[in-house]
Amino acid sequence: VKKRLFESGRPPSMTKIGPTRVRELRVRGGNKKQRALRLDHGNFSWGTEVCTRKARIIDVVYNASNNELVRTKTLVKNSIILIEATPFKSWYESHYGVKIGLRKRGAAKAAAEEEETKRSKSVQKKLTARQKDRTLDQSLDDEFASGRLLACISSRPGQSGRCDGYILEGKELEFYQKQLKKKGK
User: Which of 157, 185, 173 lies closest to 48, judged by CA?
Assistant: First the structure.
């Protein structure tokens, strides 16, 4: 039986964390694929707040399919990673006018600071209207205090050349925190 070119595979890209290095591949039909060899940033979405920001990837902490991918810090779809919280924290604070992710001691200082900031009446009115139905999960607030958020990669870095995903919240966040605690023992 004759061998066909389309039957042959290619080696995995094994995308690592580092300064961006993306290669273009010519694939079937003359199309192009972006093969990410190294990435250190990505677009991450905060589902409940409908906010997407570019954030730096810090570390790979969990992968359901293979622990080897965690040890080698390989970025693949559905791996759980740590990203910096700063872009989301600054957006939240400007959108709602509320400081988040504060340690218990710093909360009193922040409350005093909050009173000092001058805002126009229209801005004040807008912020109070937004705060009516504002809720922030306690576990997410603790993550903001640490300056790092757990996120899941939803794109395929070896195929699209990007590392995009979403911030873990609610039941999903609880589950992965439990898994990480279990792994830490």
Answer: 173
